[in-house]
Amino acid sequence: MFLNSYFSEQNGEFSFSRQQASHFAKRVAGDFNPIHDEDNKRFCVPGDLLFSVVLAKAGLSQKMRFEFAGMINDGIALNIDSKSDADQSMVDNNGKEYLHITRGGDTTHSQALIEQVTKSYVQFSGMNFPHIMVPLMESKQIMINPARPLVIYESMELDFTRLDLTCPTVELTESEIDVEGKRGSVTLNFCFKENGEVVGTGRKRMVMSGLKPYCQDDIDDLVNRFNGRKDHFNAIAA
């Protein structure tokens, strides 16, 4: 399983080191959000890594909703608490919930399909910035704080028409941004396609805080820093 190098498992519990989580964000998702840097004081494990582990461990269902309840630091031992087949949570040893999962319809444990869905979605998800986020922010003439850029994963939904699939890919269908004062939310609607046929849909929602008036120079600097971090990591990884 391609995820094996990105988490540790012992006695039915799993955890993430800073290096594992950071490398997943950069190598798999192409996500260079500073909050996933190993040396960041506000470090947190990427939500897409939690999503990926849940699919690998508990299977892919036709209908799934993921609600992120808290940021996870490195070294926290977690397990999947199944209240029922349709209601699960990712919790720590104290019962604190970090991720709530609801599911319905058929479920598959095909690792080949789960890996394909995971990689396709995560690579799409990691393209949020700058490709999708910057045009959305410009349309509303607002922007995240370039000194402390913070975008939090709130929820994600999947809805497949069937699961007898082999190589579904993800495409963006619609993106929108809502702003209220210094807070905002971004919703990305997407679909899964196989051989040109739409076989599923999904939605990802993120929240932003500390918004400020749009400034092209600040955005350009933020994008340049993002690309510089990406080039630097890729050079080291090579």
Structure write-up:
The mean pLDDT is 93. This protein starts with 7 loop residues before the first strand and ends with a helix. A hairpin with a 4-residue loop joins strand 5 and strand 6. The chain has 238 residues and is an alpha+beta fold. Helix 2 runs antiparallel to helix 3 and helix 4 runs antiparallel to helix 5 (216-237). The strands form three sheets. It has an eight-stranded antiparallel sheet with strand order 4-5-6-3-8-11-10-9. It has helices at residues 18-28, 47-58, 111-125, 128-140, 216-237; strands at residues 8-10, 13-15, 60-68, 78-84, 87-92, 97-108, 142-143, 151-160, 169-180, 183-194, 197-208, 212-213.
Which features characterize this protein?
238 residues, alpha+beta, 8-stranded antiparallel beta sheet, two-stranded antiparallel sheet, 5 helices, 12 strands, DUF3581, DUF3581 domain-containing protein
State the secondary-structure class.
alpha+beta
| Count of alpha and pi helical runs | 5
Q: Low-confidence parts, pLDDT < 50 over ≥5 residues?
A: none
Strand order of the largest sheet: 4-5-6-3-8-11-10-9
Q: Level of helix content? A: 25-40%
Between the first and last Cα atoms, what is the distance in angstroms?
Answer: 22 Å
Beta content comes to: 35-45%
Number of strands: 12
Shape: globular
Largest β-sheet summary: 8 strands, antiparallel
Taking all Cα atoms into account, the compactness measure Rg is 18 Å
Along the chain, the helix and strand elements come as EEHHEEEEHHEEEEEEH
Mean pLDDT: 93
Pfam families: DUF3581
Protein name: DUF3581 domain-containing protein
